[in-house]
Recover the amino acids of this structure.
């Protein structure tokens, strides 16, 4: 037998002013056939698993391109079509194949394409036919469209947020794909629309217990996989929202019943899943109330992982106003400022304008005399076993505060974001990170306390005011009781 594996992924914030083009992919991750590293990435861990599992079956593996861009705004149409056609061409050259395994994200939107993943899967089906196994791994912050469900035999999303289980889910995807190719299972999909959109961190209750519960359900006979599609509220597309997906071994009725049961339970959590988000002033005062650090302060809505720039200066300016000096910030995206600091060199002092440039709600630039403390070309941080590029980066000291400026947008994943730049995170009283919850897994191990701060921008964080133009379904919190409205429509 022969298996083809490839990956094409990004998360598109359709409200973001930061366009996504080919350079965005090449700055983040682009690996042509045979060039994927031995370490997994968030959406291409299937490559690594296939390298081990497929040859072990005595089968042939054909690797296609793997490409990932840091979340941003709409993908340039030519960029999407070029990468899509590159992978489709590789698949066509590999034919005939017995299976196709794809690492996708699920929230990619390009100019002219609201459903990039659905478009890609439909074209894969045109090439391989209806009987060939097609399996995909998804990020839960995605849009589960009927087109994707129709064209893929197996769809499995990460269970955890933060996504610490992306490699485990890749193992699951490949395992089920192999079993289907052998004729051992008959995957049948059931999807329930929860008709809500919410932030659903699995590091906290009630989602922690819910994920543990669905893992237990997966041990029951006939149940192959259960996935929670959280949805991605910054994507203005028709299928935006939370969905519950169950895959059974040929038991449609069981899957439909369980998907509805679990989906309604998930809907009952609405409004009670987020950690307490506080204002910038309250958050910093809370952090300063702890005599010892580090206290981690998360700037949740200036998260590059949600497609925004990551150049807000709101918390930095408040720290400066409070006279706080025992603090570090990771990161503020500003490629021009990085270039100036590299040119000046380590130890140099210069008058610098940085941050607050990508939009009008990010606090505006900081204009200050800074000292360049560290220059790191092609800096990186880790996310589990994955290496996350930050591009050329520098540490500047401004008013006694260490600020990491980076040239590749990246949210905070790990304390080595700081230590790789010469900052000992354990020696800082306050660490400010740009992330909604992916930071939690690694930073919670060193944090004296964690504070989630809502600066009000720039991420479109309130569905009631986001101004969706393509979302036509009734969902909470835009509608208080969307299931009642849906029942009325269906019964009309």
């Amino acid at each position: 037998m022969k298996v083809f594996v490839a990956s094409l992924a990004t998360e598109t914030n359709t409200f973001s002013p930061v366009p996504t083009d080919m350079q965005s992919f090449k700055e983040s991750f682009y690996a042509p056939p045979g060039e994927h590293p031995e370490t997994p990435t968030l959406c291409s861990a299937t490559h690594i698993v296939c390298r081990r599992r497929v040859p072990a079956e005595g089968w042939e593996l054909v690797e296609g391109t793997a490409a990932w861009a840091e979340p941003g705004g709409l993908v340039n149409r030519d960029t999407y079509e070029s990468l899509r056609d590159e992978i489709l061409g590789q698949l066509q050259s590999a034919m005939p194949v017995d299976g196709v395994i794809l690492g996708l994200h699920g929230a990619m939107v390009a100019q002219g394409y609201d459903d990039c993943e659905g478009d890609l899967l439909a074209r894969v089906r045109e090439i391989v036919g209806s009987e060939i196994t097609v399996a995909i791994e998804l990020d839960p912050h995605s849009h589960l469209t009927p087109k994707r469900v129709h064209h893929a035999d197996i769809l499995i999303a990460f269970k955890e947020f933060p996504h610490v289980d992306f490699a485990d889910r890749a193992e699951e995807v490949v395992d089920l794909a192999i079993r289907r190719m052998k004729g051992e299972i008959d995957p049948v999909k059931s999807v329930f629309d929860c008709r809500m959109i919410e932030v659903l961190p699995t590091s906290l209750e009630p989602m922690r217990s819910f994920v543990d519960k669905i893992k237990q359900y997966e041990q029951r006979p006939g149940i192959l996989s259960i996935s929670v599609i959280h949805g991605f509220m910054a994507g203005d597309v028709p299928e935006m929202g939370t969905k519950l997906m169950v895959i059974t071994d040929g038991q449609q009725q069981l899957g439909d019943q369980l998907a509805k049961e679990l989906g309604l339970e998930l809907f009952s959590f609405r409004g009670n899943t987020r950690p307490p988000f506080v204002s910038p002033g309250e958050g910093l005062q809370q952090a300063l109330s702890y005599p010892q650090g580090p206290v981690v302060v998360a700037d949740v809505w200036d998260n590059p992982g949600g497609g925004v720039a990551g150049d807000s200066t709101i918390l930095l300016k408040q720290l400066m106003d409070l006279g706080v000096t025992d603090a570090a910030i990771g990161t503020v995206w500003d490629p021009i400022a990085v270039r100036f600091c590299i040119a000046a060199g380590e130890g140099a002092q210069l008058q610098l304008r940085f941050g607050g440039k990508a939009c009008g709600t990010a606090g505006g630039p900081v204009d200050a005399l800074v000292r360049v403390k560290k220059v790191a070309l092609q800096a990186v941080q880790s996310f589990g076993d994955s290496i996350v590029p930050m591009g050329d980066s520098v540490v500047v000291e401004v008013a006694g505060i260490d600020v990491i400026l980076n040239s590749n947008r990246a949210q905070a994943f790990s304390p080595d974001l700081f230590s790789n730049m010469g900052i000992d995170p354990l020696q800082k009283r306050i660490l400010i990170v740009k992330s909604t919850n992916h930071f939690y897994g690694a930073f919670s191990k060193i944090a004296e306390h964690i504070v989630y701060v809502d600066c009000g921008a720039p991420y479109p964080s309130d569905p009631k005011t986001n101004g969706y133009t393509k979302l036509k379904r009734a969902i909470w919190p835009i509608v208080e009781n969307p299931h009642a409205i849906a029942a009325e429509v269906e019964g009309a």
